[in-house]
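Consortium newsletter contribution from the modelling node. Members have asked for a concrete example of what our holo predictions look like. Here is one, prepared for the pyridoxal-5'-phosphate complex that several groups have been discussing at recent meetings.
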Amino acid sequence: MKKINFSAGPAILPASVLEEAADAVRDLNNSGLSILEISHRSKAFSQVLLETESLVRELMGVGEEYAVLFLSGGASTQFFYTAMNLLNPEETAGFLDTGAWSAKAIKETKLFGKVNVLASSKESNYDHIPRSYTIPEGLKYLHVTSNNTIFGTQIHEWPETSTPLVADMSSDIFSRRIPLEKFGIIYAGAQKNLGPAGVTLVIVKKDLLGTVERALPSMLDYRVHIKGASTYNTPPVYPIYVMMLTLRWIKEQGGLEAMEKHNEKKAKLLYDEIDRNPKFKGTVSDKESRSLMNVTFVCTDEADTERFQKEATEAGCDGVKGHRSVGGFRASIYNSMPYEGVETLVNVMKDF
Ligand SMILES: *Cc1c(COP(=O)(O)O)cnc(C)c1O
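And here is the predicted structure:
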């Protein structure tokens, strides 16, 4: 039986994407070759790269002042890569500390420059997005984690500032419309909302680069990858191919506006049940901070936890278990999760 995949990442992909991706492993577009065995400099892959980039640009409205890169190393590499490329030792990056991923980015950034944490919800185990803080003058950039995959919170109001935002969007990229002009860099590991693990999408405003004094190894210099059009070295060919298929799927669904509606509808169904059903409660203290991607909740009576887990699993819901630092349950309902998948989980909750 095909399971309903609520895993936080690597995560669910559209069924049609999986089928086409499997076909391409056997034979890419009747070429007689597998996508796994073609050169990254072949005509076939150059076309994949071009189409993937143009879909990113089209869906998000990314203009020529930004470069679109497909790198490796995951979002975790971008934690220090952004600092290495943007921040001189005497310069300061602002941070909103909204979860474990933000904390890691802060730690890495301190290796290269100064860090000013403008607000943190750590004291309350990151159960909300801080909303009252001041943004000082003179920050080189302000780093935010748009969606906190582990704690189930999401930024719904972007900081009001002309300081460029550097955003880790690993777990909500392409799930909604964003005011692109506020962002200096957007990065996202693909394995939550875009494709398989192995490629990191980076959208970088070109005029922010070239201001650091330190020497950068080629592989850790955005400008080298921009010049090489993401083929300075061998890029993750297959993950990029699957990302292309996923972006085509998003476009077919109606783009980011349609994704946003679809995601709001699914999240509402699940949160309404959490709020209505006395057997469950949400872990996010401030409802305005709730994530539309990762829905975290617990059983009101902890003794029910194991039984609910069992019933959800029996209904075909896989990966609903919460992260160890929050406990309880987490249902990740990324773009590719159909409404009917959430309905199945909600029905288990109703019957419970
Ligand atoms: C999963 C995740 C990461 C880590 O990504 P890797 O690709 O494993 O390095 C970073 N930030 C967020 C928000 C995530 O969800």
